[in-house]
Structure formats: structure tokens, C-alpha cells
Amino acid sequence: MKKKIIYILSITATILFTSCDGFLNQMPDNRTELNNAEKVAQLLVSAYPTGTYVQMTELMSDNVTDNGPLYTFFNKTVEESYKWENFTDNQQDTPQFVWELYYKSIAAANHALQFIESVDNPDDYSPHKGEALICRAYAHFILVNIFSQHYNKQTSTTDLGIPYVEESEKIVEGKYERGTVADVYERINRDIEEALPLISDSYYKKSAIKYHFNQKAAYAFAARFNLYYENYDKCITYATKAIGNDPEKVLRDYESYLSFSSNKDVAIEYIQSNPPCNLLLMPAASQWTYNHWGYRTWYRYAHNMKKLEETLWGPGPWVDSEYFYPAAKVFGTDRVTYFPKYNLLIEYSDPVAGTGFLNIVNTVFTTDEALLCRAEAYVHKKDYVNATKDLAAWYNKRTVSGVPELTETKIEDYYSTAVSVLTPELNPKFEIADEKQLNFLHCVLHFRRCETIHEGLRWFDIRRYGIEVKHAIYGQDDDVLKKDDLRRVIQIPSAVIAAGMEANPR
Q: What's the mean per-residue pLDDT of the chain?
């Protein structure tokens, strides 16, 4: 098995970059000559990134700790993520890999948009245009939230953004400017608003609809974006379009998972396209599952029993983790514990030799996370009645019958006296009005941490709220990532810097 993985790395390590213009402007497929709607639809398959940030950002978060030198790590990328270091490799799960593949997806979207603008019957391509615009917006959204400061109304007009690429160029020329975070967000917002009325579920094949930005997935993305953008009314509107007004009917049915005995069965069920909770599924090349629970000797940096006591087995208003359904399906050992959201998928390049690429399927947007976006937006608007309804809906789908009802008073009382792991100091750029709002925000962030465990999204919540993170380093003092630590922004790839693009401050 080790020989196979080494071969995989030798393949991915050949993805090198010669200039920043090269991987901003490259054609998605130089064999593609568009001349009809079917070919545009085929091209837009390439507008979905085939790489992911999940391993990087999860290892950077407070969901992971150091198990010590008795264990090792699969590759240097794992340690560099955990220690918030500049990355030295360009294989799967690195900044260079993400940068290239997300800009490649943008190039595909731009190529489709350029063709649609040139035809005599653009209205016939409306759903294609909607998909291209929403894909372009999503890719830029991920890039700006990895390689730039988080959006805020105080500093984003001067914070370094990322290039927002809107043209598909066949000839590589010119230099791209990074612009500002505010400018990137403004353009993402423009693309989303133009895309939403154009997206049509009937445009997709029924069997593939959950692998494309269908209407509900697009609205879930719009909800998360507007939450980050501090547009809370729009977040509420779009989340409601994604999940409706009776969320318990469309949330994940964790009680049904009790019937599964193996981690593989749980993982397979988690990424099924049939359940209404899964809105967008996105396959990606990643070693995350392998690093996450593949080999016991590679558990140096992991979500272990100590961290489990902060998350799925930790305290909560459900009284005891015994009454919390997700806690019943935790697998692993004292050194690595996990709820199996990802299966170990291998795309074989040589089945006889047993070599290939490691892949995951990521639940990029779900009704459950969209519901928590809406709940958070209600909290920001001090609408605690509706916030409580949403938080209670999430709570009810995850707890056994008979646990204490989650009420407005229960939330206030519980989080005002909760253990510190549930109530870290929050240092957002926006103002928290009072103790009641603070307690509700702690509830939302706690539920989000449980909901998004292993998915890398906790990192973005840490950044949004200026949460301090302490990483244990064996034999040394803890490494503390304070609220203004520049390492909260991942450095842009070294090849891009070498080509002349301004680096993030260090």
C-alpha cells in the first residue's frame, strides 16, 4: 500500500507552474470548440474544482491536536497545515493545488460565458449562463477566503484580495492585480445575483442534479456568501429558498444512521444524492480520508479523544453525548476519532499495479449548514424568536426523544455558564450588542462546529470571529494563533509570487 501512495505522490508532484498568468489564463481544454448547447454543458463540468481546501483548513483549526512523536504524518503538507507554515509542496491538498484547480474551473466558466455572449440566441443558453456565473462566483469565494483576510466593513477596502478573472484569454499576456477583498466580494455578489434567476433544475440530468449548482444549492451558497458579507436579510431570504420554512423535513436524519454498523456504511450513506439534506456534492482529489483515518502510525496530527470531548462527545444543551445521535457513530481509537463523512475512494490509473489517485466526495452545501447560516443571521438581527426556531430544529434532528427542549431561555442560560471550550473569546470586526447576543452566537458557533466537523469550515468561523487557536507542539510551548496573527491568511503560491504578484504580509 505504501508503494502505491508514493506513486500517487509522484504523479501529483509533477503539477508545476511557470507563471501566475499561466494558471489564471489557461484554457480549460484546448480541444474544446464550442458550437452548441450540449458542448457548453459538457464544458461546464470543468467549472467545478477537482481539488479541495478541506484537509488544509481542518488541520489549521482547533479540531486537531498533536499526538506526539510516537506517530508520524503522511506527508509534509499535513505538518505544514497544522503548524500554519508556508507550504513547500504542490501536491494534493496544498495552496498551489487549490489555486491552480480553482482558477482552472474559473477559466472553464469564462470560456462558456464568452461563447454565450457571441451567439445570436443567448436566451437559449440562460441556464448555462446561470451555471457558469455561479461556478465562477463560488471558485472566487473560496479563493478569497483562503488567500485573503476575511471580509469586514472596516478594512476590506484596503485588504489584499485575489485576482477576479472574467475573461478567457487564449494568449497569455499581462499581469493580474490582486485588488481588494471588498472588490472581490462585490463581483461575487454581482455574479450570484445575475446567476440565481437563470438557474434551472430542468437543465440538468436528474441523476446528476446534486453534482451541479441546482436551485437549492445555489441559494444555499448565496446564503453563506451573504452571511460572510454581513447582508443578513439576504442570507435569511436565500437560506429560506434553499430549505423552506419547515426545516425538520429536509434536515439530515441522524437517527437512521443508528442502524449502520460500520464506518464505511455511514460514509456511503452520508454522501448519497437522494436525501434532501445534500444539496451539492463535489468530488475532489484529496488525501484527506487517508490522513484522517487511514493508518494508525500516521496519526501525529488528528482529531483525537481529547478533541472529541470538545466536539461530538463534548458538553451541550442535550445534557449528555449519549443523547446526541452523531456521537453514537464516532469511530477510531483514542488517538484518532471521526464521524465518517468521507469514504476512501481510489481512482485507479493502473488497476493491475494498484496505483491511482485518492479522492473524496465533499458535501459542499447542505440544508443543515444553510439552516445554521439563517439562524446566525437572525441572531445578528436580534430576532431571537426565529433564531431559536432554527436552532431548535437542528437540535431536534440530532437528539433523542425526551431531552430538554431548546428554548430561548435555555440557550441564554446554558451558554452564559457553559465551559470555556464552548464559549471561546470572540473578537470579530463587527460589534456584539450584549450578553444575550453573545450567548446566542456561542450557541450557533458550537452547533456549526459539530455540524461541520472534518469539513474544514470551522477554520472560516475561526477567522470570522477572531477566535484564538492553540496548537499543542510536543516538547514545546503551545503555538498560539492570536486574532491578528498574519498566519490566519494562507500565503499565495510561491510560483505566483515569483511571477510578480504581491505576497500576503508575513
A: 90
- SS3 (DSSP) at 46: helix
Which of helix, strand or coil describes residue 153? coil
The pLDDT value given to residue 274:
96
Residue owning grid cell 481542518: 58
CB atoms closer than 10 angstroms to residue 170 = 9
Rounded Cα gap, residues 483 and 463, in angstroms: 8
Sorted by sequence, the CB contacts under 8 Å of residue 438 that are 6+ apart come out as: 426, 432
**All 3 cell numbers of residue 55?**
484537509
Residue with cell 426545516: 247
Q: Are 394 and 251 in contact (CB under 8 A)?
A: yes
Helix, strand or coil, per DSSP, at residue 480: strand
Among 230, 282, 314, CA closest to 102: 282
At CB < 8 A and 24+ separation, what contacts does 187-194 make? Answer: 187/140, 188/137, 188/140, 188/141, 188/144, 188/164, 188/225, 189/225, 189/229, 191/133, 191/134, 191/136, 191/137, 191/140, 192/133, 192/134, 192/137, 192/218, 192/221, 192/222, 192/225, 194/130, 194/133
pLDDT per residue as tens digits for the range 298-354 = 789 999 999 999 999 999 999 999 999 999 999 998 899 999 999 878 777 777 877
Length of the chain: 506
In sign, the C-alpha dihedral spanning 9, 14, 18, 24 is negative
Residue 60, CA distances (Å) to 19, 360, 488 in order: 28, 19, 9
* Domains along the sequence of the chain with CATH: 2-498 (1.25.40.390)
Alpha carbon of 197 to those of 112, 124, 201: distances in Å? 18, 14, 11
The pLDDT tens digits for 73-85 are: 878 999 999 999 9
- Partnered with residue 469 across adjacent β-strands are 481
CA trace torsion 254, 258, 263, 266 (10° rounding)? -40
